[in-house]
């Protein structure tokens, strides 16, 4: 989908490479615009549902245009069709396509007591016109998401046509514990409403959900997204949702996540806390973006060691993992290209990216405290592969130098007599391990099941303080961009 011109977007493209797509971004960044634009090309979506015009106050809508490249599923060859939706003068012009579309908005989280359509049920003398049990797929999904039995949930109708309904829980064996939706938790009602609507939709439908985590516990949010992935497989549906929650992103591959920020769209997982840093919602004087969680920890440990020796301020630096080399580079350069930014960003990449095309460091300048600071926008971890491999191999090759094993044992929070076991584990795992990304977990197993994160941090910390020249090679090119530590009075 190409957003030629609509609200804050100009000539931006988004691809839906995975059947479930998450849209993240700060408030007002355009997530709902993308959601609405995705549904706009289908007949069953009324344009005013997302894009209402209020007379002369919305003259900016003139010239809005969205272009689509749609896969024609009726053709075995998977041929594509191009379509356009545009707002020329006073109305939308669309080459609309037939497709079932389900829109699940924020209203689902409103408490029953605040909804105008619930007045019929809010009476002492209310009598139901009918009761409808949920189908097994709904009950199974609700049970898995909420983590409790869902057999007793039902829909209660206020009229024979079933146009007005309310949820209720009724247990024949414990009638004193029955209750209606007026006493449901917000998350409980929201999950039932989402799941029941999705299960009612036809196969191959498009499902649009706003703020999926609204009213939900983080665990329920993750389970709900797992359910959506199952729906995509089972019913061949396409699902797009907006979110501010990292928990909603966890079950998704990185290409299923798009971030929206200041009229730009970027593919790849973006931690919500990283997004807050980019948007200036978190105070920082320097941002570091990395490829993954290990690199995030690696940057933290090595920067602490470097800052201590150089009298620099580590506390004002924010470090975030962005799920891949390309997202880390792209977000870094997008941030640095923003003329209103108040701090620079640097990207830390694995050593194997040093000779890849498109990853050559670019000069970076930033004025702080009236002084022009210079550096580069990309730095590299040491070695020719990933830092996990380099750190382990360096320690393994230098175990007998400078009491390195003793220091590592203490960093692992183990007693000194454990040194021989630490040494034996390093030798054995070094000989048998086939994937260095797993080696720290394997060493943890050897040492009475130490946490993988504890082992990782211990190795990196020991390496960083034992080999300061290698740490200097990482951060030296950007030393001027790192804030100085405050001097003592």
TrEMBL record:
Top-rank lineage group of the source organism: Bacteria
SUPFAM superfamilies in UniProt: P-loop containing nucleoside triphosphate hydrolases (SSF52540)
Gene3D superfamilies documented for this protein: P-loop containing nucleotide triphosphate hydrolases (3.40.50.300)
Name of this protein: ATPase
A Pfam family matched in the record: AAA_21
InterPro entries: AAA+_ATPase (IPR003593), ATPase_AAA_core (IPR003959), Bact_Antivir_Def_Nuclease (IPR051396), P-loop_NTPase (IPR027417)
Domain AAA+ ATPase: 17-289
């Amino acid at each position: 989908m190409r957003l030629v011109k609509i609200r804050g977007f100009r000539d931006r493209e988004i691809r839906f490479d995975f059947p479930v797509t998450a849209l993240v971004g700060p408030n007002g960044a355009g997530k709902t615009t993308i959601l609405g634009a995705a549904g706009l090309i289908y007949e069953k979506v009324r344009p005013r549902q997302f894009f209402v015009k209020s007379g002369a106050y919305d003259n900016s809508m003139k010239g809005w245009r969205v272009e689509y490249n749609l896969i024609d599923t009726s053709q075995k060859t998977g041929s594509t069709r191009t379509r356009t939706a545009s707002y020329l003068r006073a109305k939308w012009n669309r080459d609309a396509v037939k497709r079932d579309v389900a829109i699940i908005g924020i209203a689902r989280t409103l408490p029953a007591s605040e909804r105008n359509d619930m007045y019929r049920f809010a009476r002492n003398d209310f009598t139901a016109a009918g009761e409808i049990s949920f189908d097994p797929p709904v009950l199974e999904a609700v049970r898995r998401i909420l983590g409790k039995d869902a057999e007793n949930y039902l829909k209660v109708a206020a009229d024979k046509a079933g146009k007005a309904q309310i949820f209720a829980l009724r247990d024949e064996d414990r009638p004193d514990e029955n209750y209606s939706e007026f006493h449901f938790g917000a998350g409980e009602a929201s999950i039932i409403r989402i799941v029941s609507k999705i299960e009612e939709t036809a196969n191959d439908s498009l499902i649009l959900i706003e703020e999926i985590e609204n009213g939900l516990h983080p665990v329920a949010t993750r389970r709900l997204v797992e359910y959506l992935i199952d729906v995509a497989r089972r019913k061949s549906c396409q699902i797009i949702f907006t979110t501010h929650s990292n928990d909603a992103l966890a079950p998704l591959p990185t290409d299923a996540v798009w971030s929206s920020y200041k009229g730009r769209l970027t593919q790849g997982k973006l931690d919500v806390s990283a997004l807050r840093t980019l948007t200036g919602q978190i105070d920082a004087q320097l941002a570091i973006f990395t490829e993954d969680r290990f690199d995030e920890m690696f940057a933290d440990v090595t920067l602490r060691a470097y800052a201590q020796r150089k009298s620099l301020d580590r506390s004002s630096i924010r470090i975030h993992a962005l799920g891949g080399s390309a997202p880390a580079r792209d977000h870094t350069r997008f941030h640095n290209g923003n003329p209103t930014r108040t701090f620079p960003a640097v990207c830390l990449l694995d050593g194997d990216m040093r000779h890849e095309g498109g990853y050559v460091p670019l000069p970076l300048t930033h004025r702080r405290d009236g002084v022009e600071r210079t550096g580069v926008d990309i730095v590299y971890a040491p070695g020719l592969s990933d830092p996990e491999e380099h750190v382990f191999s360096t320690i393994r090759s230098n175990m007998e130098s400078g009491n390195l094993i003793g220091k590592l044992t203490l960093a692992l929070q183990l007693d000194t007599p454990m040194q021989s076991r630490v040494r034996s584990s390093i030798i054995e795992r070094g000989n048998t391990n086939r994937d260095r990304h797993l080696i720290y977990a394997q060493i943890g197993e050897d040492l009475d099941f130490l946490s993988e994160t504890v082992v990782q941090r211990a190795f990196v910390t020991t390496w960083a303080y034992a080999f300061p020249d290698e740490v200097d090679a990482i951060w030296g090119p950007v030393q001027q961009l790192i804030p100085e530590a405050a001097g003592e009075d």
